[in-house]
Design brief:
alpha/beta; 36% helix; Rossmann fold; globular; binds NADP nicotinamide-adenine-dinucleotide phosphate; hydroxypyruvate reductase [NAD(P)H] activity; 313 residues; 12 strands
């Protein structure tokens, strides 16, 4: 397979690059000074593309690769891939579901514990020496709280399972009810937010879920409510989130993802009731390797004309 040209759009994992290099003719887009010059000279050699949550496969990139057969995404989310364009052109698409579910759910629980028990604030308190002068103060209990989940898919369900172990009562909002669960279903996200203390956002990013958490949802969650976003930044209307936090209309937030990441609104940087992560939901050694293996196994299956492991298209 070493004559097959594979283009990787940006740095993702050393392991993935090494494994791709061993098997294919690997092109690294970021190592070239001009994307357009690189594509002009090499577009006919590229049959596969590996993208991620930063740079996927938009219409322009897809159109510039006339021999492209497959996009193998190093992510489960498909929001950075122009799926319509791929479908039109008969380009196959794969992603990395399941292998990252546990890590992302763990990170969501980590975020809610960090916000409610003020873990990062506590850490800063000890490091700064303030403990020698005064006591820290109280946090908020997580165990037993009512939890709402937006998007009861793989990750949403894994968060629910974990929250249940904390004695939480689980409700959810999705496009359809999941009768196989005994969680309470709300057909309106506003009703869900009004009836829970902690709202986890774990749905896919689509046109419909862009700003699914708007001012109304935030106000329904209320001044004691906590919002955890482990999905994608654009799920939340970020200026509305910032003003609700500044005005005390929302109790706190734990965010792994941001609307214009890696840019983060300055106000969030100084708020103590907010915990910020640099989009690391699935970033563990174990899972990044499993994701890389899945990317490669999908590519190999495609070029060996075998069934794809995790096909999207
Ligand atoms: P999944 O199993 O496909 O679940 C996605 C869920 O989104 C489904 O339950 C779906 O529920 C729901 N959904 C889709 N459109 C909706 C809408 N209009 N309104 C309400 N719910 C909607 O995917 P997953 O593996 O759990 O991953 C979920 C998302 O997590 C990914 O798409 C990705 O963006 C994000 N993610 C983030 C990280 C990170 O590092 N922070 C890592 C991995 C994934 P219904 O079909 O019932 O509506």
């Amino acid at each position: 397979m070493d004559s097959i040209g594979v283009l990787i759009t940006c740095p993702m994992s050393d392991y993935l690059e090494q494994q791709l290099q061993k098997r294919f003719n690997l092109f690294k887009l970021w190592t070239h000074t001009s994307d357009s010059d690189f594509l002009k000279n090499n577009s006919n050699s590229i049959q596969a593309l590996v993208g991620n949550t930063k740079i996927g496969a938009d219409a322009e990139l897809i159109d510039s690769l006339p021999k492209l057969e497959i996009v193998s995404s190093y992510s489960v989310g498909l929001d950075k891939i122009d799926l319509r364009k791929c479908e039109e052109k008969g380009i196959r698409v794969t992603n990395t579901p399941d292998v990252l579910t546990d890590d992302v759910a763990d990170a969501a629980i980590g975020l809610v514990l960090a916000v409610t028990r003020r873990v990062c604030e506590c850490d800063r308190f000890v490091r700064s020496g303030l403990w020698k002068k005064c006591d820290f103060g109280l946090g908020t209990k997580f165990s037993g709280k009512s939890v709402g989940i937006v998007g009861l898919g793989r990750i949403g369900s894994a968060i629910a399972k974990r929250a249940q172990a904390f004695g939480c009562v689980i409700s959810y909002y999705s496009r359809s009810e999941k009768p196989e669960t005994n969680y309470k279903y709300y057909s309106s996200i506003i009703d869900l937010a009004a009836n829970c203390h902690i709202l986890f956002v774990a749905c896919a990013l689509t046109e419909e879920t862009h700003h699914i958490v708007n001012r109304e949802v935030i106000d329904a969650l209320g001044p004691k409510g906590i919002l955890i976003n482990i999905g994608r930044g654009p799920h939340i209307d970020e200026p509305e989130l910032v003003s609700a936090l500044l005005e005390g209309r929302l109790g706190g937030a734990g965010l792994d993802v941001f609307e214009n990441e890696p840019e983060v609104p300055e106000h969030l940087l100084v708020l103590e009731n907010v915990v910020l992560l640099p989009h690391v939901g699935s970033d563990t050694v174990e899972t990044s390797e499993a994701m890389a293996d899945l990317v490669i196994n999908n590519l190999e299956a495609h070029f060996l004309k075998k069934p794809l492991l995790t096909p999207v298209i």
